Automatic annotation (TrEMBL):
A Pfam entry, by short name: AAA_31
Domain of life (superkingdom): Bacteria
InterPro entries, sorted: AAA_dom, DNA_Partitioning_ATPase, P-loop_NTPase
SUPFAM superfamilies: P-loop containing nucleoside triphosphate hydrolases
Domain (AAA): residue spans on this chain: 14-189
Segments crossing the lipid bilayer: none
Name of the featured protein: Chromosome partitioning protein ParA
Function: Involved in chromosome partition. Localize to both poles of the predivisional cell following completion of DNA replication.
């Protein structure tokens, strides 16, 4: 291969949906901090806040009153990514915020043409502008999550280390399989990340073992510990990597980013 062949190939962002229909499992925390860690390695990263709660936007310091057009307008063709994207305090990390109207989108989308493809169509215009696009999903398997799964190359599933971690997961897997069969045949699971691991609690170990038994190598080696700095960071409008880089939580997310990048490199070498 000539030396410049790979640089001549147009860049195409890898799109990861962070999904789990359970709330409070670490989707948003993982979106923000994985996004920050990827940006810190020099990747250009876009976060799409696809949850009406808008926690990814708030967690990156963009308050509710401070948001213009966002994901709602994007889904309804009233704006473009280029027109609505915002910078963050992290170089190379960008966000399309969730607007208040997004809570109505789930119902309003039903009537629309290409209702599952609205996000994919909108992102198609910017895939050459980013290395990674991370979509933070709401805690449901409705049309907002379907739009994310239809747009994504792969899914990253955060699982909280609690007794009911695996409950409801078969429903998520079935949804992913259905999206594969119907509108996105190449969709894969990038990996499963165990979050809020408490090493003083034997239950965490048991849950982790269970999840590894079920998902095998799909589970990342990196486990995100329960760490108070992680939970404090959003109220300061910062990723934990900025709030307290030395904290166990920040370090874990840096490791996770390394694993995600490694899987992407391996995938590339297999698929060419
Ligand atoms: N590793 C962690 N350690 C401590 N608290 C965490 C950790 N990860 C997430 N949290 C907290 O748990 C809550 C739920 O996390 P969040 O990322 O918002 O979940 P989801 O987006 O799946 O609803 C938030 O208050 C968040 O700050
Ligand atoms: Mg969330």
């Amino acid at each position: 291969m000539p030396a410049d062949a790979s640089s001549a190939a147009p860049k195409r962002a890898r799109i990861l949906a962070l999904a789990n229909q359970k709330g409070g499992v670490g989707k948003t925390t993982t979106t923000i901090n994985l996004g920050t860690a990827l940006a810190a390695t020099g990747k250009r990263v876009l976060i799409v806040d696809n949850d009406p709660q808008g926690n990814a936007s708030t967690g990156l310091g963009i308050g509710r009153t401070d948001r213009g057009a966002g994901t709602y307008e994007l889904l309804f063709g009233e704006t473009t990514v280029a027109a609505s994207v915002r910078g963050t305090s992290i170089p190379k990390l960008f966000i399309v915020t969730a607007s208040a109207d997004l809570s109505g989108a789930e119902l309003e989308l039903v009537e629309l043409e290409r209702r599952e493809f609205r996000l994919r169509d909108a992102l198609a215009h910017v895939v050459a502008d980013y290395d990674y696009i991370l979509i933070d999903c709401p805690p449901a398997l409705g049309l907002l999550t379907l739009n994310a799964l239809a747009a994504a190359d792969s899914v990253l599933v955060p699982l909280q280390c609690e007794f009911y971690a695996l409950e409801g997961l078969s429903q998520l897997i079935r949804t992913i399989e259905r999206v594969k069969r119907t509108f996105n045949p190449s969709l894969e699971i990038q990996g499963v990340v165990l979050t809020m691991f408490d090493r003083r609690n034997n239950l965490s170990d048991m849950v982790a073992a269970d999840v590894r038994g079920f998902f095998g190598e799909k589970v990342y080696e990196t486990v995100i510990p329960r760490n108070v700095r992680v939970s404090e960071a959003p109220s300061h409008g910062k990723p934990v990597l900025l709030y307290d880089l030395k904290s166990a939580g920040a370090q874990a997310y840096i490791h996770l980013a390394g694993e995600v990048l490694k899987r992407e490199r391996n995938r590339q070498s297999v698929h060419g």
